Amino acid sequence: MNEPQPGPDQAAGPNQLPGPYLAPGPYAGGTAWPAGPPQPQPPPQPPPAAWPYPGPYSWGPPPRARWDVPPPPGTRYDRLSRTPLHRWWRPILGTAAIIAAFLALSILVGLVAFAVSLVTGVPMARTGARLFADPVLDLGFQLGVIALLLPLVLGAAWLIQRRPPGSLSSVALRLRWRWLGACLLVALLAVVLGQAVEAGMLMSAGVDPGFSWAGWEEFLPAIIVILLLVPFQSAAEEYAYRGWIIQGFGAYLRNPWPAILVGAAAFAASHGYTGWGIVYVFAFGMLMGWLAVRTGGLEAPIALHATNNIMAFGVVAASGDMGSAMEQGEVPWEALIGSAVQFAVFGVGVLIIARKWAIQTLSR
């Protein structure tokens, strides 16, 4: 009989791989592989990480720590200098540095004034605290010297206390311009009303309120200097007496009233008023310190201080008696009635608007 012939796979025998490289069992007749059994596959690799690719070496310098550290959230204005970097010696060293730098700059300004006198031929004054015989030029230098306090105080906060300079401005760590504008409007109303009441009280007592008109030729040069420099002079005093002093004491004390009291006393001592004039300046300092803490910043104090000084210097400029612009001394008690009206109108108006606008009073 004709037996069926074994195929090529059958002829190979049971113990011999069919074909050159085909495996038995489930691989029979399947895929060709190299000599030997299949090797285990390597585990899947994770996708490459996002740039920068991790490795033994870092790319670029490490991030630098911030020099100035802001106050923690929920801090009141008078406590803003108590940052995580606060040390007991920082406010003391900062105060000493401000005083020393201000004295050095005052001497430098005196030398500059002497040079200006030589170049322009304007004689220097030889009596009192005046620098120049020209009253307008003298007023400009006097206001400029006071304005130098502003960069000194801001610089001490950043360099010595290592906190943002804006922490002297407000709890928002900056000057809140919209709020400052609103305070300026209230200040203008308060100063005008107070001036009117003061003039009425003085005239009723037979005292000349000092209103006169010397002409545009006398008024224009003086009012230009006043408008340009008085805002910086007023702001510098507020940053020094209501900002630095109040926050300096606030670094140690939780109660703001000792700081407000010391700031007002220092403010009064730095002026040359006597008698009722001391009462006026001290009361002004107390109100400004309280409003700074109450509203969380210096916007309200700066607004009233600048508006009041511009009005006072403006009245003198209109009269043409600029030689007495920086003179301070006795103030009649009748003038305090107008000051009281000014303080009341401004304080109540500012508090009403601050409550209506929900002005920020704590740091965030």
UniProtKB/TrEMBL annotation:
Transmembrane regions listed in the UniProt entry: 92-119, 139-159, 179-201, 213-232, 244-267, 273-293, 300-319, 331-354
PANTHER family attached to this UniProt entry: CAAX AMINO TERMINAL PROTEASE FAMILY PROTEIN (PTHR36435:SF1), SLR1288 PROTEIN (PTHR36435)
GO terms of biological process kind: CAAX-box protein maturation; proteolysis
Organism: Microbispora rosea
Biased composition (Low complexity): 18-34
Keywords annotated in UniProt: Hydrolase, Membrane, Protease, Transmembrane, Transmembrane helix
A Pfam entry, by short name: Rce1-like
Domain CAAX prenyl protease 2/Lysostaphin resistance protein A-like span(s) in chain numbering: 222-311
Biased composition (Pro residues): 35-55
GO molecular function, one term: endopeptidase activity
Source organism superkingdom: Bacteria
Chain residue ranges for the region called Disordered: 1-55
The protein's name: Membrane protease YdiL, CAAX protease family
